[in-house]
Amino acid sequence: MEKRDTVSLLAGGRSTMSPSYSPQSVVLDHGKGMRVWDREGKEYLDFLGGIAVLSLGHAHPAMVAALTDQISKLTHISNIYFSEPQILLQEELIRRTFADRVFFCNSGAEANEAAIKLARRYARIVQRSPKFELITLEGSFHGRTYGAVSATAQPKYHEGFEPMVPGFSYAKFNDLASVEARWTAHTAAVMVEPVQGEGGVRVASRDFMQGLRRLCDERGALLIVDEVQSGIGRTGRFLATEHYGVEPDIVTLAKGLGGGVPIGATLAKESVAAAFT
After folding, report:
1. Helix (H, G, I), strand (E, B), or coil: what is residue 276?
2. Which of 5, 236, 245, 265: disulfide with 253, CB 3.0–4.6 Å?
3. pLDDT tier, 109 (very low <50, low <70, confident <90, very high otherwise)
4. What local confidence, expressed as pLDDT, does residue 183 receive?
5. At 2, is the pLDDT very low, low, confident or very high (cuts 50, 70, 90)?
6. Comparing 224 with 24, which gets the higher pLDDT?
7. Do domains 6-70 and 75-273 have the same CATH topology?
8. How confident is the model over 69-86, as pLDDT tens digits?
9. Would residue 29 show up in a list of annotated catalytic residues for this protein?
10. Measured between alpha carbons, how far is residue 141 from residues 155, 156, 193, 217, 218 in Å?
11. CA nearest 263: which of 119, 76, 128?
12. Beta bridge partners of 74
């Protein structure tokens, strides 16, 4: 491949990339730990970490060894076969959490899509109820696929993509009365991030999280906790939910779970996961 200078590469990148993002005028080349270097050898501290993805930093020796070993044996086999790493990861996630079942996918958005679908299917198949609505919180961010962005209670992410998927209503974050006011006979679940990242790094209060759990129990709804960004040890516990003394029905994971390699997971209790067949 022809070696191109940075100016040429930047021009090519800007003229061919979709205008969805506004990348910085730098072409990164390699990294080690939390440091990265561009093509000219200039060093940077990577405080972004791939937007909370790089739980072990760049080029961690254990991760490089594990990925190299796996890619030399099996690259992809889909979910219709088992592999040892898959089973070991399922068992480890169950050991560390409330969950009994794990559904793997490719991203946090997909994990949240699966959670939304599971909540609706649980209402219909297990509870035999017409419930389908989810209450989410203002300032949230659940992904860019249609279901996940419809669950995202920020108008700026909806603009130009309307109509959104129906069945979502938005309550105020850390305001239990607002959630109650949004509750209807069709409410199937509440979906919450323990720490909102896109909403300004806002932390859910203990009273709020415990109140959501109580409301869901009293009214026969599921509590979905989106831990795509807050999970995998980011708050000092494996799940941020553990700080609240609350056990959810469904949790979504991604980002730090793969440390930079695409993966998502939807974890659920046996009674809830049984709705998927």
Report:
1. coil
2. 265
3. very high
4. 98
5. low
6. 224
7. no
8. 999 999 999 889 999 999
9. no
10. 11, 11, 8, 25, 27
11. 76
12. none
Query: Count H helices, E strands: the chain?
Result: 9, 12
Which of left, alpha, beta for 154 (phi over 0: left; psi -120 to 50: alpha)?
Answer: beta
161 is catalytic: no
Of residues 199 and 95, more confidently modeled: 95
| Active-site pick, 103, 104, 168, 255 | 255
Residue 117 among the catalytic residues: no
Residue type, 62: A
Nearest CA among 274, 230, 233 for reference residue 252: 230
**∠ CA 273-247-135 to the nearest 5 degrees?**
75
Pick the closest to residue 52 from 235, 231, 257, 229 (CA basis).
229
For the CA atoms of 243, 246, 252, 256, what is the dihedral angle to 10 degrees?
A: 10
Positive or negative, the Cα torsion across 10, 256, 268, 218? negative
User: For the domain bounded by 75-273, which CATH number is listed?
Assistant: 3.40.640.10
Catalytic residue selected from 103, 131, 208, 226: 226
Residue of 103, 104, 132, 141 marked catalytic:
141
* Spans of all domains in the chain: 6-70, 75-273
